[in-house]
Design brief:
The structure is a single chain. The protein has 13 helices and two strands. α4 packs across α7 and α12 crosses α13. The termini are far apart. It has three domains: about 90 residues, no CATH class; about 100 residues, no CATH class; about 55 residues, no CATH class. By secondary structure, the protein is mainly alpha-helical.
Length: about 300
């Protein structure tokens, strides 16, 4: 079944490293005056339109037909990226794009075509924004992991849920659904609208400072450190001292460097000598333009980082 594909990591499976909150984004479409490299429709979030109401009750418009095809391709990519499938499902359902498919019930439509149950589709639609945000940070979460973050997203928004995963991953811990569940269970009850930075500080306290939860073991009835006078002074001082440490992620220039590093690393993964040779053989003029632009860009990067380094 499709749902079995989203089980947690198997033993020995290396954890994919991401750039984290300090380095957002992936390289966009590679483009110059004569060459455009574009991902197939339905394989990226950008190629799937946002959910919107139907254009009418009759036949699909040409735009709706294109959106429908992109959404179906997106769900076909469920095995590769559940967040793309989740967005595709929500867009199809919101726009009633299946209305001419002879299967008026959306739950029946997705089961007949992809054997995705209604409950599973609801989870995917609730999770895709978290998955998208984590992917933009360079992480590759499993659906079972993001499922543990949905309670945080419902209470405090997707940014807070992303902060929980990102903090756990950046702390060098192995990210599994059970590890996320344990951290979420220890999160204290917080005021609505809590910032991701505050969530990061609390999760760091759970991971690094071993701050025990309140009596009862779940943290229910407590507030974030610094928000509740009933918090024990020892724990409050521990978390406060930790949160006052200089955090490189607060520097805009450091974030810019980390973003650049993420882009360079992603580019390095997509290029190799055999591919360059084949490109030169198939389309020598276009390939040469791209190679020359890569060389020029790398030269600019090299000159930009050629600054005096701090003494050891």
């Amino acid at each position: 079944m499709v749902g079995d594909l989203f089980s947690d990591e198997e033993p020995g499976t290396p954890q994919t490293r991401g750039t984290g909150l300090m380095g957002r984004g992936y390289p966009g479409v590679v483009q110059d005056a004569s060459v455009v490299i574009k991902a197939p429709i339905g394989t990226t979030l950008e190629s799937i339109p946002l959910p919107r109401p139907p254009a009418g009750d009759g036949e699909l418009s040409s735009d709706e037909e294109e959106t429908f095809e992109a959404c179906k391709a997106g769900v076909d990519n469920l095995h590769k990226a559940f967040w793309i499938a989740g967005k595709a499902l929500e867009t199809m359902k919101t726009g009633n794009l299946h209305r001419n498919s002879d299967v008026p019930n959306f739950a029946d439509f997705i089961w007949i075509n992809w054997e995705i149950s209604e409950s599973h589709s609801q989870r995917l639609m609730a999770e895709w924004r978290i998955g998208e945000a984590l992917a933009s940070l360079g992480w590759r979460p499993r659906e079972s992991q993001v499922r543990e973050l949905t309670p945080v997203a419902k209470s405090h928004g997707e940014d807070a849920a992303v902060a929980v995963y990102d903090t756990l991953a950046r702390a060098g811990k192995r990210v599994t659904s059970s590890a996320l569940k344990d951290v979420v269970k220890q999160l204290p009850v917080t005021p609505s609208g809590v910032s991701p930075a505050e969530v990061v500080r609390v999760v760091r306290g759970i991971l690094d400072l071993s701050v025990p939860p309140a009596a009862g073991g779940t943290g229910h009835g407590t507030k974030l450190p610094g928000h509740d006078a009933s918090t024990t002074s020892a724990n409050a001082s521990e978390v406060q001292g930790h949160s006052q440490k200089t955090d490189p992620s607060e520097s805009e220039d450091v974030r810019r460097l980390m973003q650049s590093l993420a882009l360079v690393r992603d580019a390095a993964k997509t290029i190799n000598r055999p591919a360059v040779r084949r490109a030169m053989d198939e389309h020598p003029e276009a390939a040469m333009l791209v190679v020359q632009e890569i060389e020029t860009t790398l030269g600019k990067i090299g000159r930009a980082i050629a600054v005096r380094r701090p003494a050891d």
